[in-house]
Specification:
By secondary structure, this protein is α+β, with helices and mostly antiparallel strands. The protein is 56% helix and 18% strand. The structure holds adenosine-5'-triphosphate (ATP) and magnesium ion.
Length: 470
């Protein structure tokens, strides 16, 4: 605001002084022109009277013209001595005034100048300056002398001071308007910033629900909108983190409770039949396995969240990797009379982290088996599409309803909790799969129809830009 005011103030000051200068120059020039012209005209009347020494007529002319012009008229001879004076004071006195000397010594018909008036001047008590205008008196034999006109310049000074005063008033009004504009402008400019600052401060104190007021236009509006988007994401992140922690605690608590009940039974029933005790101990063992699974899955996820996962890039023979993974699941498939069929082109290799890619396949095939009835066929199709390898895992199982499809990749999300628990699912498999696919710069999609089956499709780039393979 201050800078704004100073700039406007200084420019107005400069402008006012320049303008006053122009006006005074103009007034001065005009005065010179008017005075010189009328004096030169008068000189033509006075010259013959002076030459013919018609004193009375001359005196009379000087008196009347002086009164008419409002100043003092004098006639000087060629030596600069006063011969006639309309004030009748300086008769015989030699006037060494520059204007007189200029006209007497040169070709100029007249000369003009402004001089300060001495104290007790005959001309005026109040005026500080007088203008001197000298015009040549030319007779039949050349220069006769000088006609000198002396008058106060009060009027001109008055006009100048008027102009000056008006300029000052305009500059003052402009300065005031500038301050007012600066205050309003800075208020308009800083108000949304202040409001945004307050919003950020409340957010800094932990209230993630506050939003900036989006108003006006331009940069501030964009800033408020960008801030709100960021706040929205932070709030969502915070909510999903809370959800994750509460889900994780809940999932860990369930096997713990079961284990405690089993343990208390064994502990407080010393005469429990041996086979029942054995069964309880086996159940406890099963629950411990479950707990270990959850904890290791959670560890994998948090490690990936923190960006601490190192990728071991290598060239992978994809059909071979899939075969190896299928072998791991063979016993479970046999148990449920399910067949896992691989359809692949002759060879397809890509740059990937073998262990992690195997984990992706394992989870997807395991799901396909888990959520399909006994005796069903699971089909794994490998193909190449442009610069990508495509892996599709297809089953003819329970399928996933559209409203659940969007959630299955979320942590701890299970469509049918009871059924999942039965099959030992924690709801973490697919979220790990998605993270692993992202680490390979790939994507995973799902098409499914309730009661008909599902297909999970993974697309992975064949080559990882800038990665060194082992
Ligand atoms: N092939 C599929 N057919 C039908 N539903 C599926 C299929 N794959 C996943 N789902 C559904 O998506 C949910 C999430 O799958 P996800 O693999 O993340 O968890 P999970 O299999 O229950 O447990 P986990 O894999 O952690 O042992 C499952 O609980 C299931 O309801
Ligand atoms: Mg799973």
């Amino acid at each position: 605001m201050l800078v704004f005011f100073v700039i406007i103030g200084v420019s107005f000051g400069v402008m006012a002084s320049r303008l006053t200068g122009f006006v005074s120059d103009y007034l001065y020039e005009q005065r010179i022109r008017e005075d010189s012209l009328s004096l030169e005209r008068l000189a033509t009347t006075v010259a013959p009277l002076f030459q013919s020494a018609a004193s009375d007529a001359l005196n009379e002319t000087l008196q009347s013209s002086g009164a008419e012009l409002g100043g003092r008229l004098m006639v000087l001879d060629r030596d600069g001595k006063v011969q006639f004076d309309s004030y009748a004071r300086l008769m015989g006195v030699r006037l060494d005034i520059p204007e007189v000397l200029t006209v007497l010594g040169g070709d100029a018909p007249s000369a003009y100048g402004i001089h300060p008036l001495g104290e007790n001047s005959v001309l005026s008590d109040s005026a500080a300056y007088a203008s001197y205008c000298a015009a040549r008196l030319t007779g039949t034999r050349g220069t006769l002398g000088i006609l000198l006109y002396v008058s106060t310049v009060t009027e001109m000074m008055q006009s100048l001071s008027d102009v000056h005063r008006q300029m000052m008033m305009i500059a003052g009004a402009a300065g005031f308007a500038a301050i007012l504009a600066a205050i309003i402008f800075s208020h308009i400019l800083t108000k949304p910033i202040q409001s945004l600052t307050r919003t950020i401060q409340s957010m800094g104190k932990g209230d993630l629900s506050v939003r900036a007021r989006v108003s006006g236009s331009g940069e501030i509006r964009n800033l408020a909108m960008a801030y709100n988007t960021m706040a929205e994401q932070l709030e969502q992140l915070d909510q999903s983190r809370n959800q994750f922690v509460s889900n994780a605690s809940h999932e860990l608590k369930t096997p713990m409770t079961t284990m405690k009940i089993l343990l208390e039974n064994v502990l407080y029933q010393p005469d429990m039949p041996q086979d029942l005790r054995q069964e309880f101990l086996q159940d406890m063992n099963h629950e411990i396995d479950r707990l270990t699974d959850i904890v290791s899955d959670l560890l994998t996820l948090t490690r990936m969240d923190a960006g601490n996962t190192k990728m071991q890039w290598e060239t992978i023979d994809l059909p071979m990797l899939v075969q190896d993974t299928i072998h791991l699941l063979d016993p479970a498939a046999e148990q449920r009379r399910q067949s896992i069929v691989l359809s692949s082109p002759g060879s397809l290799s890509l740059t990937a982290d073998g262990a992690k890619l195997s984990q992706v396949l394992y989870n997807l095939i395991e799901n396909a088996m888990k959520y399909s009835p006994d005796g069903e066929k699971i089909l794994i199709r490998l193909s190449q599409s442009g610069k990508d390898a495509v892996i599709a895992v297809e089953d003819h199982g329970v399928g996933i309803a559209p409203e659940d499809q969007v959630h299955v990749f979320e942590r701890f999300y299970r469509v049918d909790k009871a059924r999942s628990r039965e099959t030992g699912g924690n709801g973490l498999g697919l979220s790990i799969v998605r993270q692993l696919v992202l680490l390979h710069h790939g994507e995973i999609t799902l098409t499914s129809e309730l009661g008909k089956g599902s297909t999970f499709t993974v697309r992975l780039p064949l080559h990882q830009e800038g990665e060194i393979t082992a």
